[in-house]
Amino acid sequence: MSAALEDLYQQLIIDHSRRPRNFRALEAPDRRLEGFNPLCGDQVTVYVKLEGDRIREAAFQGSGCAISTASASLMTESVRGKSLEEVERLFQAFHALVTGKGAGREVELGKLAAFEGVASYPARVKCATLPWHALRAALAGSGQSVTTE
Amino acid sequence: MTAPSPVLRLPPASGYDLWRVRADFPALRQLVHGRPLVYLDNAATTQKPQAVLDALMRFYGRDCANVHRGVHALSERATRAYEGAREAAARFLNAGSARQIVFTRGATEAINLVAQTFGRSVLRAGDEILISALEHHSNIVPWQMLAGQTGARLRVAPIDERGEIILEEFERLLGPRTRLAAVAHVSNALGTVNPIEEIVRLAHRKGVRVLVDGAQAAPHLKVDVRALDCDFYAFSGHKVYGPTGIGVLYGKAELLEAMPPYQGGGDMIRSVSFERTTYNDPPHRFEAGTPPIAEAIGLAAALEYVSGLGREEIARHEHELLEAATEALERIPGLRIVGTARRKAAVVSFVLEGVHPHDAATILDRQGVAVRAGHHCAQPVMQRYGLAATTRASFALYNTQEEVDALARAVRRAREILA
Question: For residue B381, which of B144, B166, B136 has the smallest C-alpha distance?
Answer without folding.
Answer: B136
